[in-house]
Amino acid sequence: MTLIVDRIEEEPLEEPTPEPTRRRIDVSEMDAAGVREFVRDSVGTDRVSLEHRGSRTYLLVEQ
Question: N or C: which end of the chain has fewer CB within 10 A?
């Protein structure tokens, strides 16, 4: 039995685009209005999201 292996020309992989830097701020003790006010007054961007980890809530700020 003969095994024939063909060489496949592959294009080089593109460089992965780096993910944006994120800052994580613990906002577990704040209510929704407090988080909204904090973002408006202190963060400087509207590119934010919330993340829940266990019993903690974090504000993720993309920079």
Answer: N
pTM over 0.70: no
For residue 9, being part of any structural domain is answered with no
The domain containing residue 31 runs over which residues? 22-62
**Domain-located, residue 15:** no
Q: Is 41 left (phi over 0), alpha (psi -120 to 50) or beta?
A: alpha
- Residue 37: inside a domain: yes
DSSP characters over the chain: ----------PPPPPPPPPPPEEEEE-TT--HHHHHHHIIIII--S-EEEEEETTEEEEEEE-
